[in-house]
Amino acid sequence: MRSPIHREGFFIGGSLFALGLISSTISRWLGRLFYLGAAFTMYFFRDPEREIPQGDSLILSPADGKVVGVDSVEHVPFIDGPAKRVSIFLSVFNVHINRAPIKGKIAYRHYTPGKFLPAFEPKASVDNEQNAIGIEGPEGYRVLVKQIAGLIARRILCWKNPGNTVESGERFGLIRFGSRTEIYLPLDARIEVRLGQRVYGGSSIIARRS
Fold first, then answer.
1. pLDDT tens digits for 33-69?
2. pLDDT 10s digits, 15-34
3. Which of 28, 73, 76, 154 is deepest in the core (most CB within 10 A)?
4. Which residues belong to the active site?
């Protein structure tokens, strides 16, 4: 049975709890601060199960959060041409597990070091540290997902490499503490979300294949 908390949370939360025990011998209030940090860490790294919509034409949200951008980009690596883009901002209160928007094979992965601007700013898409994976689905349909670090985030995790396969809604990574996730789609994709909408990784439908 899968734990409702990702293992990263147990490591960080456990460390903060241990510091709380030690600090309590010096100051009750300092100890409580560490206990609070441990509790929030466990909350942040929650990893709930999701009901995954089924259908070959469906493109699912790769992350929980708020849609902060729906636009087009002139050229996108892996897609090798123009693409539609949906940008999702993840606050520290969102689940930060990333999920595959379609089933297929990981055919591309590229890490780019960078800055740690606030993730809700459009410049974060270009300037911030990020990891991109490209998924090639049935009939060669290609989708690119970017994991982008934010002001607080300092670690991007991705558990999939080129050659691996994923199912729709499958977990492939996470970003620590506030971030941005973007999905790039072929121009014929029909976008199903709007600015300001709340979406949920693996269960919200971002778009449909034409």
1. 877 877 777 667 788 899 999 998 999 999 999 999 9
2. 767 777 788 788 878 878 87
3. 76
4. 179
Q: Give the whole-angstrom CA distance, residue 99 versus residue 112.
A: 20
Q: What are the residue ranges in the chain where pLDDT is below 70?
A: 1-3, 5-13, 16, 42-43, 118-120, 151-154, 177-178
What is the per-residue pLDDT for 4? Answer: 74
Residue 179: inside a domain: yes
Do 129 and 192 fall into the same domain?
Answer: yes
The boundaries of the domain holding residue 84 are 58-208
Q: How far apart are the first and last CA of the chain?
A: 37
Would 49 be classed as within a structural domain?
no
Give 205's strand partners: 60
